[in-house]
Amino acid sequence: xxxxDSGRPTGRPSISAPTGLPLLMAFDLDGTLITEQGREVDAxxxxxxxxxxxxxxxxxxxxxxxxxxxxxxxxxQPDAVATNNGGRIVVNGELHTEARFTPSDLEAVLAxxxxxxxxxxxxxxxxxxxxxxxxxxxxxxxxRDYAPLxxxxxxxxxxxxxxxxxxxxxxGRLRQSHPHLVVTGAQDPYLSFLTVTPEGAHKGAALTLxxxxxxxxxxxxxxxxxxxxxxxxLEVAGYAVQVGRLPLLTxxxxxxxxRQTDLGGYLSAWADRLERE
Length: 277
Hints:
This protein is α/β, with parallel strands linked by helices. It contains nine helices and 14 strands. Helix 1 (43-54) runs parallel beside helix 9 (263-276). The chain starts with 23 loop residues before the first strand and ends with a helix.
């Protein structure tokens, strides 16, 4: 199977896409399974996912969001969902693992120098937000019944998000002072957005834990991603599919899709092959 891209953009050894079952396919959301900040799976991708699921392929979502949209969940019916960049993993509808900041790590994360930053802390149940003076909350914050940042329970925070033009400098300092924390963003394509998650809370670990929970060999995993927080997932996957052209992911990919809209056709071709087999 080949991608719709005409060239191979990867430095990884050339291998063929896995054949037969068992097989686990894990998808990032924004820019991969759905459009950036989208809420629904397009018709071609939805049809292909249904075919793959019917053929016995196990499906997973591994996203930086703190929850997957209901419409996506309804269409995909995933066996596992990892949110908060892999920090919270649900397998077969049951909580599997959850990574929380220690109070001292959270204190370090909040000791930033980003004057006027918009900050969001995520727990399993709620958002806690600090907005710059004069800034109105966004609709998704209101829908989630957000509370002030000062009310966040220090022992329950799963993820911190920062929105500010200067996040790159802060990210560099945090990587130096607390290298065990997981820092993503603050680079193309999210130049003004930074995400911090606790130690071990990254998408590569999530993919491994999901495969283990579903009793699948790691070399039978296929990961799809488009941005820097997908790097760890593509690196450990048995077969890695890059969506888009982010150079950071090139060395980890076995195949590449030029555009997010190519995903449905790619998955449909994979289903065709499984049916022939």
